Amino acid sequence: MDPAEDFPAGTDPRPRDGASGGGKPTIRVVMLFPFFPPDYSGAGIQGERLARELAAAGVEVQVLAPLHPGVDAPRVEQREGLRIRRFRVPQFDFERKFSLGFQAAVWLAGHSDWDLLHIHGFGYYAIAPATVARSRGRRVLVKTTLSGGDGVPKPDGRPHHRLIVEAYRRVDAVVALSAELEAGFREDPDFRAHVVRIPNGVDTELFRPASAAEKRAARGKLGIVPDEFVVVTVGRLDHRKRVVDLVKAVGRAASRPLCALLAGPDSPFPEDPPMLDRAEAGLSAEARVQRLGNVSPDDLPDVYRAADAFVLASSAEGMPNALLEAMATGLPCIATDIPGARDLLEGGEGHLYSVGDIAALARGIDALVADPAAATALGARAREAVVSRYSLGAVVGRYEAEYRRLLEGDVVAADSSAPTDC
What we know:
The chain has 14 helices and 14 strands. The longest helix has 18 residues, at about 95-110. The chain is about 40% helix and about 15% strand.
């Protein structure tokens, strides 16, 4: 138990002058995740990178996360400036979420060395922790992670879902990843939290354009033939990511030889693998699929370097990390016209197409193959946009500023006159 727990909320007596903010008090943040590495989750990976960079900037970060059955990770560890506490949770989804929320709430109630609760996403796991934080006079910030999954909270008729809606509406601030999400929060008359738009960030040094030698080496490691045009996608191979659409588009495209490089774990939904198998079986001899499985973070940059283009075929995203990484690598990108992807590409940094329009995706791939100079220029524009607007360092600075605004009491209710922070 924390030595300061007997003091009222907000009156921890330990000195807090420190590294963050040039002599200002150190910010102490608890981050709550429904998934956190080594669990496979794009939002979890993005959150871990953000947490590490915040810690490097002098923010004290304590991570609370589940330890799912079968996952090999320590319950308590400290690495890369982060203190990580994992809670054992049941296998089944509904029980897991409530178990995580209950254990996290108990932890928050028993510790005083934190100032702000930063929740990644929002679901049943967030209700009790947010309630405890508010009862102790601490600020609560929620980062949305998936449009349509934890976006603008709306009642759906289920009594227990109402708990999520009411808890969500009582938080202090929400980070909206896309313009659509931001507008949805601001237009909701029942939502009073401060709304700020902060995009996901990407490490532009780790994900950078490949030299000719690096590209040859990366392709050689994967067994890709020199004249093969490789289209990569990164993410879980499930129906939301619509990887079957990419495979079918590779089959329909006129260009040959083509390879769809799929980097990500298999779908947990039983209907997905057979659909992908059937789509792959229907390809001609000069159009193929190469599945890489779950690629480690250390190997992922080489996967992008081996490719000639990137495709995001998803039906829904918050702000897709894989698209940011591909753009940073300088790949020409094609993505579905959805929130998050639209924010990244609608200025001409890539091509957008309607969800499920396989013919349009095939035409987009053919266009990139037919005009290598235009494809290279498109990738350069994508890289320039990421460096100027979506670098991880710039995003970390905006989070730190938002934390300070919350802790200093400068919180503005969301309304139509509030400024857009993007």
